[in-house]
Amino acid sequence: MRHNRICVLFISDLYSAKFTRQPDMKLDVKNLKMTDMVLISDNKLLLSDENVGTLALVDIKSNNVVSKIELRKKPSLVCKIDKNRAATTAGNEIQFLQIEANALRCDLALTSGEDAYQYGIASQGNNLVVTYVLPPGVRIISTDGKIIHKLDNTTAGKELFKQPRWIATTSDGSIYVTDWGTHKITRLDSSLAILQTFSGSLLRGPHGIIALNRDQLLVCNKSNNNILLIRPSTNSMTVLLDDGIEKPQSICFCNEQKKLYVASEDDKVMVYQLSSQIRE
Q1: Domain 8-279 is classified in which CATH homologous superfamily?
Q2: pTM of the prediction?
Q3: Among 135, 146, 194, 209, which has the highest number of CB atoms less than 10 A from its own CB?
Q4: Secondary structure of residue 56 in the 3-state scheme
């Protein structure tokens, strides 16, 4: 496994960037209610639908669903492992996926021996980082299910999490976890030691989060109906987008097209063109 692909931007560019609202993405499939999305390649987007247990592979240039599968257990969040592999949480299982051209198929499934509900998922090196709803916490696990590190309210001796959800990882080993129950984002190191916490009136109901680089994070600030830009080095947060956004839930960025995709709770995918110069 490898880190999720990270787009490297000039630090000053994003703060001064201008976004132009594009037509919303309209998918050629009915009754698809998006829970999460992740960019698999420059033109392929993987969507999960927790309501009916569906995963869909979408060509973002044509807005066509090129492959769709239904799982035995309903998928929650998804992550990219590499260009041909992805994974999704589904109850007490992690379902690995193979992606070849326009074909999406199930691979091995990793089942937890515990009665634990897994939700958020991200890749980090050769391992996976997973958030748990019951009990609320975060774990780093190997691909064969071995628990490498564990952090929850019991191990910490105090309430750290209420409803941990989305995860972003960065190349320096940092792990960012959104918790819409506490209205906080927690930054952890690769051993799950707490490095930093983001909170305040500006941050309400954080959901999807992505890392553009080690010092620029974009967060779906669901309850405040906007997208936040977080800069860990200065512990700062600022509203990046609030143009017509309602209850943003997940987010991804396409470096090739320089477009930002924001999915809302009402299953609309808003598209924004970024005008700044970007490099990888």
Answers
A1: TolB, C-terminal domain (2.120.10.30)
A2: 0.91
A3: 209
A4: strand
